[in-house]
Amino acid sequence: MKSIDNLANPLYTVLEKTVQYITEGGDFLEIVISNHGKKPLYEQIASQIKAAIMSGELGAGDVIPSMRSLAKSLHISVLTVQKAYETLQDEGFIETTAGKGCYVSVQNQDFYLEEQQKKIEEHFIEAIDIARTSGISFEKLTGLLTLLYEEDN
Coil, helix or strand for 92? Predict the structure, then answer.
């Protein structure tokens, strides 16, 4: 019988990559990806750019890195970045102009926040219905929400 210590162990390496770009306002846009995260790489990229837009770090009309340059900096496929940018474009966060690049959309952030709040309310209604049907108290439900909300912070 062979010892486990003597066998080649085909474990994958966890890779984490961070890149920083200087925005037009002089701020740093930092994008961190990890192949060990729960989210696919394109979602990690899209959510970080979305967060930078929502926080005001990136403003309307600001240029974001080209797909090729971001892919090269992160050492990932340009198709992954393309999928992230398509997601952002579909959600109205960025606009892409052929030959000129990608820019932060001039969309109304209040409208986006209102849409997100509606989605959250729909999920809350469903959760409340399940809790009531299952006899879970309001205190237990809010405790669970607090725990889940603070879990990733």
Answer: coil
Quote the pLDDT of residue 25.
60
**Token pair of 23, please?**
């925005």
The confidence score (pLDDT) of residue 132 equals 95
Instruction: Report how far residue 80's alpha carbon sits from residue 43's, in angstroms, rounded to the nearest whole number.
Output: 9
Task: Name the packing angle between helices 138-151 and 109-134 (round to 10°).
Answer: 130
Q: Is 101 left (phi over 0), alpha (psi -120 to 50) or beta?
A: left
Beta strands in the chain (DSSP E): 16-22, 28-34, 63-64, 94-97, 101-104
Higher-confidence position of 6 and 36: 36
Give the C-alpha separation, 1 to 3, whole Å: 7
User: pLDDT tens across 83-109, in order?
Assistant: 999 999 998 889 988 888 899 988 766
Question: Exposure of 122 by Cβ count < 10 A (0-12 exposed, 13-18 middle, 19+ buried)?
Answer: exposed
Q: Burial, 92: exposed, middle or buried (Cβ in 10 Å; 0-12, 13-18, 19+)? A: middle
Instruction: Give the residue carrying structure tokens 């037009």.
Output: 24
